[in-house]
Amino acid sequence: MALKHETPLLDELEKGAFPSFVKEIKRAAETAENPDFAQDLLGQLELSYKEKVTHWKHGGIVGVRGYGAGVIGRYSDVPDRFPGVAHFHTIRVNMPAGFFYTTEALKTICDIWDKYGSGLTNMHGSTGDIILLGTKTENLEAAFAHLSSRGWDLGGSGSAVRTPSCCVGPARCEWACYDTLEATYQTTMRFQDELHRPMFPYKFKFKFAGCPVDCIASIARADMSVIGTWKGNIQINQDEVRNYASSGLDIQKEVVDLCPTECMTWDGNELKINDEDCNRCMHCLARMPKALKPGQERGATILLGSKAPIVTGALMSWVIVPFMKMEPPYEEFFELVERIWEFWDEHGKNRERIGELIERMGFPVFLREVGLEPHPAMVKEPRRDPFYFWTEEDIEK
Amino acid sequence: MDKEELKKVIYEMVEKSMGKKKLKQSDILKKVSAEHGVDKSEVKAALKELLDSGQLIFTYFGGSYIEIPPKEQP
Q: Does ipTM exceed 0.95?
């Protein structure tokens, strides 16, 4: 099928070395089962590039019956010119923990989307969900029923818990200090109501990182960041350290001198680490993975409050529990989450994220109301000083 | 207060606020619970039935709200 609209500005985006979303939309316009979506999407997008203004209206309907989340309503403000995208709703599908699929599962999703939608997908956008782009209001219930019958469910959107996501964890990574996949799955199942029925002042995101490398950037993107860590000493295999040295690695220059807390020494034969000063930067473990491993007592640090700059500026997560064992049935973790939500529910303003609420009311108030004891390890930002100031009454004389 | 009465109270509250103020779920839970001395979990259960039956719907305008569906919707 030939393209309906001329797109000279979009065509520029097909040039160069990188993959182009324009190329993929054009392919859908020519080959999809429902090509009108992609055909008119190209036309409307070209108009937006020309006029430097969006032609999408956002909001209104948000879900299939009983659900308040998982569908993002999107309408064209020029439907007469581009009827194929008069409705162009997004369906968010809850992805599997760690993004592991079978080929059959992916084919099933694509077949369903070819039938009910544009055929265009965004696998794992910033939310992490499987994003199915572009369908009509009348197709929503049928698409949902079909997805549901194949074992898929909708993800979170709006003022709800967003679909929890995680790194690949112990499935593929030796540094994982807890099972991020299991924690993600159990959190998703525990908070189904909060995921599908928006009940909060604003969105709430969980991200589970297996170690302090934080591959999923949870510290900057999740209201609640659960980052794997350990207690005690880094495990050192001195023979392997010497092997690295004999195979050409300059341990002094490339490992010891780059330690941000200067807690390591190397005498040419033995590596020593003053673990009390280690701030879990992970550089040495990443540089010598055969020689160094995280300590044996493993768990996670729980942090709260990061967000991207939507209503107000960006925030980083703040340590609220320096160390927690993250093991099934996760009751300690879930109880903490529920206490935090009660605090947020009681004091949060409309569209105020938990991090903003804490900034507004103060961290000491938050700790008191949620029932957490202040601790020097509750650092405000990664590898910074603690912030807490005790009052006169707090100090035992 | 039984569940049917509670559902009526919630529906009327949403109906009264239409065009004036959009209500979030937490607004409804807090207000009904305070005004009628009912536990929030009971209000939540009644609200869930109203949403499941389609008498009320979630809408999104920068945040999520609970409203009566427009008449043209089936």
A: no
